[in-house]
Amino acid sequence: MKRKSVYTLLVSASLLSASACKEDFIDRPSLSGTTTSNYYNNADEVRGATSTLYSGLPWRNYESRAQDAIGDVMAGNMFTYTDVEYLNFSISSASDRIGASWGAFYKIIGYANVMIKTFEEKKAAGGGAAYLDPAIAECHFIRGMLYFFIARTWGAAPIITDPGATALSGDFNIPRYLQKDVLRFALEELKMAEAGLPETDVPGRVTKYAAKGLMAKMYLYSKDYANAKAKAEEVINSGKYMLVSDYPGMFTKASMNNNAESLFSIQHQFAQDPWGTGNIKNPDRGAGALRTSEADAWEMYVPSIDMLKEYEFGDLRRKWSVMEQGWTNPSWKPQRANAPAYNAFMANGFKYDTLQPVNDGGSLSPTRANIVKYFAGPGKGYGGEPVLGQNSGNNVVLLRYADILLIYAEAVLAGNASTTDPKALEALNKVRSRAGLPAKAAITNADILHERRVEFAFEGDYWYDIQRQGYAKAKAIIEKQNRGTATYSTYLTNFSEDKLFLPIPAGEIVQDPALGKDPVPYYK
User: Fold this and answer.
1) Does residue 187 sit in the same domain as residue 132?
2) Are both 12 and 62 inside the same structural domain?
3) Which of 64, 291, 316, 334 is the most buried (most CB within 10 A)?
4) In the record, which residues are listed under signal peptide (predicted)?
């Protein structure tokens, strides 16, 4: 079936209005043509609609594989035999991951656009501002976050706020706008979110401090260190967030969804239907030795050799993030039909063993390691979290408090050679302390990059940390990495400046030739 362009999706969305039929936080609203005159008359109806923006359903095509390929394979954190073009930077505009993430981002933006317009119309017609204004602010937050993601991933890109007007005009020659303008637009969205969101809400909903935290990250990306520091400090001083002690549980236990460290997470339900309701990262990361009748595991993405070398001796995040020789989980006791040697090997708990034959419970990934993050285990019946094939109930965290602490430390450093600022040291050393590491007495940019890499490994973010260093430094980082396997080292020599950003999906340019032209200013 022919894939619809993002503009088709946006225009289709503009012809619909969002409504909700249940109160559950992450139920997907029905886009059924309900009018503002007979709906959105109370907070439950409005919040039911905005819950779509958090749901795994519209985020699915990004968080399932595109996030890994772009954020970690390109960054040199993951090895894969599947997304090799991201491993060696031979990415074409026809790549499935590019099209999937582009489509997901603009689809969610389309939802936000429709809701903003609908809620504003409802308010103008006498609807309650007390519940409509926070919902509008939620939409601005999501729109700001996604345009930030878009600007980091593609650089120059379209900005669409009123797909209905686009449809009526009949002009689909929508240009790419300068990256600095896309970033400015995203920041303006977050400022509106900050102004309109409440200071507190139920777990999982964004608040004023989530907006401040994302603004801090955006300011840091743009090297506006003063504002990055100020916004991060506001989040820190709020006292509303903390580092949780159970680091791996943030990613593997549904009971820890929306914990005290999470500022924004994609909300998942433990379900298979509709597809994307559950977290479907599980099989792509899990060791094949943990595949059972309940849980799929085919280790599509594994830790890179270079990533394994990054951990300091004694860093607890290594065993919290990576399975390798000697890693155990006594609670996991997977069993298989007609596999006596396997069952005997696993009878007293899971052992990651690279010497045992694979069919008998051994693990032999290309790098002799597998990923812990977002792998919920072999299934509830075998001592793990509940899993239904490829689906678990764990949220996907996109912004957490550890990021705010490291943003603050880097913003204080502000591009200088080093800093001994007490507050910056306190922020960074809180992250290190949880990992069981000694405190730093001074901080350099290399310290920050190292800490960010190991803290957020396999969370889809490190590529952007490399990218924001600028071409010369990014090239040096990439070409120093071993991107091979345990038996064959591979180093790249083809990294060029045009690879800092991904190409626009080919299908989009076919339907909108303006995307193939030079970007233009959005702000006059």
Assistant:
1) yes
2) yes
3) 334
4) 1-22
